[in-house]
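Late entry, evening session. Most of the bench is empty. Finally got around to the prediction I had been postponing all week. Sequence below, unchanged from the version circulated by S.P.
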Amino acid sequence: MSEDIHNLLKQKERRLVAPLAGLPGVRLIGQTILACLQDHRLHVQAISALQEAINADLAFTLMDLTVEAEAIGLKIRFEPQRAPVVTSHPVDNHSSLEQFRIPDPHNDGRLPVFLNAVSGLSQQLPMPVGAYVIGPFTLAGEMAGVQVLAEKSILDQEFAASLLDYTVAVGVVYARALVESGAALVAVLEPTAVILSPRSFTQLVLPRLHRLCEEISAAGAVPVLHICGKSTHLLSAMTQSGAQGLSLDSQVNFPEIATQVPPGIVLIGNLAPVDVLMQGDHQTVITAANSLLKAMEPFPNFILSSGCDLPLETPLDNIKALVQATRSYKP
């Protein structure tokens, strides 16, 4: 990862631990998800309260895959205690794409809410703050619909390429603003790309991811790539994306893939967010954490985390157990 994160890894006489946690902080302050996604002050309050309770090595903002989609004009459905979802997918040709412009992160939609949240957290918290930007393929899927995008990726590659050129430009502008606001790490969320073959991913997505990661690095932050689900088939391409960290889901076997990951790229993960951290008890979490820590002992480029964003209902005691197990682990 970046020199600062490498130094942090070297300075600690233990593993770093950084669960992808934000929503449990919403519950901790007695607010709704919607309120915290719309008010940067509540957003900061929720993440600050969570970090005060768990004291992880890195903090993350709330994860929201609709922020950029809303800012470019897509319709979003909001509910108080559920993640927002995109309800319109109006782009299926060059003409419909031409109607969209690059948003202003300081004025459009809720982008300013997240910039202000990053700024507030970076000033208030003692640990580095991570933020999220949606990946180009995933935003393209929100614009066109995943099925249409999949078809276009095969039958109309010129249009698919044009669409991803637009979506990566959106990501670049927003990512730069996040770094300017104080983000030390920017995670590129690319869950939809898991449906692609290695060849399609390499041809269509990889060049855009590389551009986005380069821009994040040039702005002074650590680029991390997050892909959900069974993403092992994309591992080789992911290591070429320019990402300095790979945040992968619990369906990926870390000890098996670790030998294929260059030492300059940090693996982040990957305890099961639901089966272990939400539904398990205190001892289940400790056992799972110790097992992964033991298996990853030969690999210094590893940060223990959850495989994906922790659900709202995740018990705070389980998140504390994850952090405490990492801190007390003795190789």
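Two things to note before I forget:
The first strand starts at residue 59 and ends at 60.
The beta strands are 59-60, 76-79, 82-86, 129-134, 185-189, 222-227, 245-248, 266-271, 302-306.
Will write this up properly tomorrow.
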